[in-house]
């Protein structure tokens, strides 16, 4: 051969690098080639906004229909509740996850429920619905969560709170990291019957957690590519981020297989965890592995994200923390450390606080579907076949047309009528999705968050080390705060809540 393979590969790599540089230049100069803001550069959001989602919120506010079309990304983004209902309910069949999405997350999620459509999705959803709706599984989840709080979360924060109390500072730690460990332990125990022990006082890291974090991060980066050609080319020649992704997914697969094999060796007929229940109906271990990974994604990052944002908000609104404590004192006994399952239903203000937190900081900031056929949305937007159509809960929570002139304010009272919690339409509040794909784990996630909030605020003052810091989110499948949330932990019996 006149040219060696190495020479050709080197030449092609140089060409690809130049091509990528050209795409980046185009991305910077024409990112927002949309109907209402063709004069904006992609760099503008970096200069004027903390997060890309804030920039999109700005653009969507300026649109008369609250829908924009990013032509260069072939992406329609909307905050119109009528459009959301149309996509998720009225014309559901025309807006599946779609092959482009499945391709992006397929290496990680495989045939798991969050990455499939059609019969496979229907089967997994039916199975999950039957199990998650049962009284026994909810009781088991409550037991797992309260056990993790009592034996690990409270002792960990107590050790930090007491460490430097003599000088009035208390200990410091990353609350986001703590909640990710807590949620990972809880979802592993609930879903698979295994205990990774990430929240022990020594704060060890699970190999599965590390590999899963990296795989999730790199999979999300695929979605940020201007063209799928870029990551597919890197995967074809196995270099850069795609090489790291393959290694991380291989580790996740090995560890997930170990979980399944261990459960088979120990027997699953009399176990309460979710995996054991699925194994009674599914014999395909590869399919089970995909289900395992999907439950990890659903049960860890979303809960940790919601809790982190919630405690940041409490630090900004001490009067809300006081009101939660007052409500809990009315419902719980003075010496009671852990709330009961029944008592949770008697705390509408806490429910309102959590909903209000996720209105402003949804754990999943946006979600996309892909149009099967040409269509027209209720607001008149034409959707060409194959177009990505995104509804944006983060931006929707900041729309005055939906939530009123005080949309930007944290006001739990907006969810209460005569002291009772009243839910809003899921299509104007699609934090848990809506329609046929509404989140099946919603009630258990809320239960978990309520238990954590009540247990911690009754015993500790949790104060960010940077009061008033703005939340900056890293790109990912769920909302993750860049740099975490460093906080100081103080024992409440020594440092009372300031009067308001």
UniProtKB/TrEMBL annotation:
UniProt binding sites for heme: 439
GO molecular function annotations of the record: heme binding; iron ion binding; monooxygenase activity; oxidoreductase activity, acting on paired donors, with incorporation or reduction of molecular oxygen
Keyword Transmembrane (UniProt): yes
SUPFAM superfamilies tied to this protein: Cytochrome P450
Keyword annotations from UniProtKB, A to Z: Heme, Iron, Membrane, Metal-binding, Oxidoreductase, Transmembrane, Transmembrane helix
Pfam families (alphabetical): p450 (PF00067)
Necessary cofactors: heme
GO BP terms, alphabetized: secondary metabolite biosynthetic process
Gene3D superfamilies assigned to the protein according to its UniProt record, in alphabetical order: Cytochrome P450
Cited CDD domains: CYP86A
Origin superkingdom: Eukaryota
Name used for this protein in its record: Cytochrome P450
Organism field: Aquilegia coerulea (Rocky mountain columbine)
